[in-house]
Each structure stands twice: as C-alpha cells, then as structure tokens.
Amino acid sequence: MLTLEDGSIVESSRLSGKPALFCLSDQSLSDMLEVELLGLKVSDKKFTLPALAAFGKKS
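The chain above was modelled as a monomer; its predicted structure follows.
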C-alpha cells in the first residue's frame, strides 16, 4: 500500500485485488525506491521513502 504522510491511500494492491508488478533495474522506478525494495526483508511490513527521494525536487 502506498500512502501519503496524511494517511491517504495512493495505491493498494490489496484493495485492488491485483499484485503490484514492476521490474528492477529498468529505470521505471526511482533509484531510492529500488534501493529500499532491494533492502527489504521478508519480515518487513512497511518502509518510508521521503517525497524528495521518491520524486526529486519540484520543478
């Protein structure tokens, strides 16, 4: 589930009933998101990625 700091749901594979599918190393995800995903353990339930790391600076 992808949520904003205020708790608003942006994306949820659980709610949609469809798994989240993506490829690593194809540059479709931000570098920081890939780093976080690769560092997850099976027991991890969630992680926080700051907006700047996820989306970069505002234009």
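The chain has one domain: 2-45.
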